[in-house]
UniProtKB/TrEMBL annotation:
Keywords: Metal-binding, Signal. It comes from the Bacteria. Residues 1-17 form the signal peptide. This is Molybdate ABC transporter substrate-binding protein. Belongs to the bacterial solute-binding protein ModA family. It holds the Pfam family SBP_bac_11.
Amino acid sequence: MFKRTWAAVLGASLALAAAGCGDTGDDASSGGGGSRTLTVFAAASLTETFTALGKTFEAAHPGVKVRFDFGGSDSLAQGITQGAPADVFASASPATMKTVTDAGDAGGTPQVFTRNRLVIAVPPKDPGKVARLADLSRPGLKVVLCAPTVPCGAAAKKALVAANVRVEPASEETDVKAVLTKVSLDEADAGLVYRTDARAAAGKVKAIEFPESAQAVNDYPIVEVKKAPQGALAKQFIQLVLGAQGRAALTGAGFEAP
């Protein structure tokens, strides 16, 4: 989980930039040489897909290392507005992206590159006997959700309201991976997670689709961060995500086309 304090990260990252990781304007893939690091802040639900795309990007750009910070989109957005050096921000909702654009820290107009929806995740043996969203309100059932400030939490709240289902969560987690972990470890009877995360954890949890998820589909926007240390590389990474390879990777993981 993403738990570092931005004051500490900022000092270390600035020192790294001063050591020569800034954008020199010569693309390593065209023979410019040198080692550079592209820093991508991305929603936790993008972990598996973006990690794979990062390897694809590195293969096409010799000498470039893609470093990811995955976590709750709200925390990542706050980090950017507080000065944490990043090149790209991929958020799990327009609301958390707005934090960055309102602060003037976006280097362009955010573009929606994919969508995601919720499922109910339960342990493989489903001890709580969950079959539908309304079951989450059953007394004694231990349910975990993302915190309301996190996109997966905001989506969960919207879906529950649409279904007129009231849930008292046993805990509210900082990102969707934390919810998934509690369910997979049998520390909860159920949790609301993204379809893509449940698919990535196949065998550790069972996913239950529910119709009300259509009322809470999240759009995922991506943008270059203003004053990105690696501005040229940031643009190229965004092009990869928006292009055919990115779309194929995302839909293959269970994301939906925007």
